[in-house]
Amino acid sequence: MRYGFAQYRPPAILYDHLNLGGESPDGGKIAVNSLYIEKDGAPWIGIMGEMHYVRCRRERWREFLSKMKAGGITVVSTYLFWIYHEEEEGVYNFSGVRDVRAFILLCQELGLQVVIRIGPWCHGEVKNGGFPDWLLQKPYPLREVNEGFMAVTKTWYGAVAEQVRGLYYKDGGNIIAVQIENEFVDNADYLLALKRLAIQCGIDAPVYTVTGWNRASGARIPVDDVLPLFGGYCDAPWDKSLTKLPPSSHYFFTGVRNDSSIGKDLIAEGEDEDGWRLPYERYPHATCEIGGGLQSTYLRRYQIKGMDIYAMALIKLCEGANLIGYYMYCGGENLIGKDSTLQETKQSGFPNDYPILNYDFEAPLSMYGEIREHYRLLNLLHLFILDFGESLAKMTFVPAEIMAARDDRKTLRYGMRTDGHSGYIFVNHYQRLDELEDVSDVVFEAFDVKFPPIAVNGEISFFLPFHMDLDGTKLLYATAQPLCRMEKTYFFIAIPGINPVYQINGEEITAKTGKENGFCRGDVRIVTLTMEEALFARKLGGAFYIGEQCDLYLQNGALLAAEGKEKKAFQWKEQAFAPVSAVGQKYWGDGDKSRSYELGHRAKDIDSAVPENAGAVCLQKLDEAPFAPDCELMTEFWYGGKPKLVWYRIKTEASFGFVEINMPCDVMQIYADERLVADGFYRGVCFRIPARLLYGKECFLLLSEQKDNCYMEERSYG
Questions:
Q1: Which helix (H) or strand (E) covers residue 37, if one does?
Q2: In the sheet where 37-39 sits, what is the strand order?
């Protein structure tokens, strides 16, 4: 069956219309037109991952950032939470894990650019949205232009400016953009006043951004002075519903940038009465919050799979996104303040309750540095963008002739990104928590190109090239997904269930798959990797590697394997892959093993018998609480009444690897020497805790009884 596209319309690109852009001392230049961001005169697609320095242990910053770079991240975005730095009025703390300057300098050392999100209000599931408690006691309204609030914000911006002085792009530094405020939707004058205030304080970057979502009309912003960024999540942790939500629209090719559902717990619904509409045509499609995972709230608890995130990101890329930004890309851990915990709670006036410490977000890179399935899948897109992004940025989205409706499980979901001649056909055959019907005899037609028939079966998302220029060799089409290149060798991925067929100069070639195979046409070589090989492919330090079932990254010049012991890898050298060794990562310096020890059982009743010795972990149930926590860490407002609590003494005989606690409950907490070191809401899978947090300490496990007052997904996990 033929699958065609709507009519292509060349974009009318606007130049020099925004008050954005800047130059570096070495002659570099950043500019923004209406279709893409330019770096040094060329189109550029940034790959941005959110990591909060204050939520990650400082001794692991280098490791986490190195893994982010290995996963294809080129820009690190990070919040500066006001409450973390000025918990007591007039007393600033930018030391230790709060040392934002050291973090940005480390990013620069590693070749990563930075976007700072300076607030003053941030959200980020932080208490008061990041406002210090003392600020809420002031007599003037917050988040608006008035003398009192603008004065105290100027003081905050001034403190930030002092920390990052000399680190801007104009100074030869790596700060290329600044986000002002967050999720502010209805006062352009306020946003413009914040931008001017930031510049007055010395916070001077080429690009100033704001979040652009709000209802269907988009946020009301100072049109020519900021770049609106968008996003989308695979579910809605902020929703008050305790049931499964309708199918997410982010798994359909719609071309709609604005997701009016983001933050609807805090943003009022409804249309703007005066007919306001954000002029999307003035800006490149840029994102800052493609959900890299989901943070479970007390009411809504999730299990994330790799395809949940990959399919959504692939669609955004098809729809024309020319800045790919993930929130979060690296999980983290909240700090505890002097007088209270610092996470968002109903007790602090917000609609949701979050764990006290755990901000893992089920991100591609976990709060403990583990690499997840979506890290590997997303890197397939990142490798492609890094090598082909300059031409891709000029291409625009063209929808399918027939688009699937929201409740449609039969119609093929596809779209195209093109410059009117060449381009890519994107296909998504995945809907989170649902099943789509297989589609056979799919024949794509794009302009003068007719693809051979393929079948689209199972949970897959992919894209196919047409009229692709391979160093002068013309590839009419391929039924394989382009990945990256090394000089004149081009690497593609064999899509599961689809034969990799290439049409070059009138010749149709069915390729053998695997890194050992390849074929040449002229002076160009094509290698078709299996999906398994591609998932472990990395470009590191200018070289191309494939790990043998291991995740590779560079740190301090050494090739490391994240799996914790020496691993085999292959490096592309002179038209072939040669074996190399990767040193096993050491978990916090305590050995080179990564074994997990399972603790507990799958019984429904947490009072059931628990083995006293499970692997290298000893567990003993206690008749009474061993101590009273300093602050109300197991708070009653989560449960609507005092919960039944069960205490266990827990001891690990190993300092390496992970303890896996597989005990159904409502909330879990672990204390080491009477200090809370781990927590989380039970979501149907085991809790996973580094043994290092427990080793050599007096530790207790606290569980509250399992209840049915939340939405918990039921799906096979892995």
A1: strand 37-39
A2: 22-23, 29-32, 37-39, 42-44
Q: Which two tokens stand for residue 232?
A: 């989308």
pLDDT at 612 over 50: no
Residue 323: the pLDDT is 98
Angstrom distances, CA of residue 444 to CA of 2, 457, 477, 496: 6, 16, 10, 18
Expressed in percent and rounded to 5, the helix, strand and coil fractions of the chain are: 20, 35, 50
Strands (DSSP E) contained in 375-510 are: 396-399, 413-418, 423-429, 439-446, 449-450, 454-456, 460-470, 473-478, 481-486, 489-493, 501-504, 507-510
Helix, strand or coil for residue 295?
coil
In angstroms, rounded to a whole number, what is the distance separating the alpha carbons of residues 410 and 404?
A: 8
Q: Are residues 35 and 78 in the same domain?
A: yes
435 burial level (CB within 10 Å; 0-12, 13-18, 19+): exposed
395-444: per-residue pLDDT in tens? 999 999 999 998 899 999 999 999 999 999 999 999 999 999 999 999 99
Q: Which residue's entry shows tokens 């098809």?
A: 318
- Domain membership of residue 113 (yes or no) is yes
> What is the SS3 assignment for 468?
strand
Q: Within this chain, do residues 140 and 91 fall inside the same structural domain, yes or no?
A: yes
Whether the Cβ atoms of residue 518 and residue 527 lie closer than 8 Å to each other = yes
Structure confidence by residue, pLDDT tens digits, 512-536: 999 999 999 999 999 999 999 999 9
Task: Give the total number of structural domains in the chain.
Answer: 3
Residue 148 phi, psi dihedral angles, 5° rounding: -65, -50
Dump pLDDT digits (tens) for 537-550.
Answer: 999 999 999 999 99
Residues 577 and 691 in one domain: no
Q: Are residues 551 and 635 in the same domain?
A: no
* Residue 456 within a domain: no
Instruction: Tell me if 348 sits within 8 A of 131, measured CB to CB.
Output: no
Mean pLDDT, rounded, of the chain: 91
* 442 part of a folded domain: no
User: 30 and 11 in one domain?
Assistant: yes
Identify the residue whose tokens are 């954000």. Answer: 278
Verify that 185 and 76 share a domain, yes or no: yes
Report yes or no on 188 lying in a domain: yes
Domain that holds residue 299: 2-330+360-389
Q: Which amino acid is at 522?
A: G
In terms of domains, do 569 and 600 share one?
no
Q: Pick from 516, 550, 585: which residue ends a domain? A: 585
Task: Name the residue with tokens 């009884």.
Answer: 705
What's residue 260's pLDDT? 67
183 and 276, same domain (yes or no)? yes
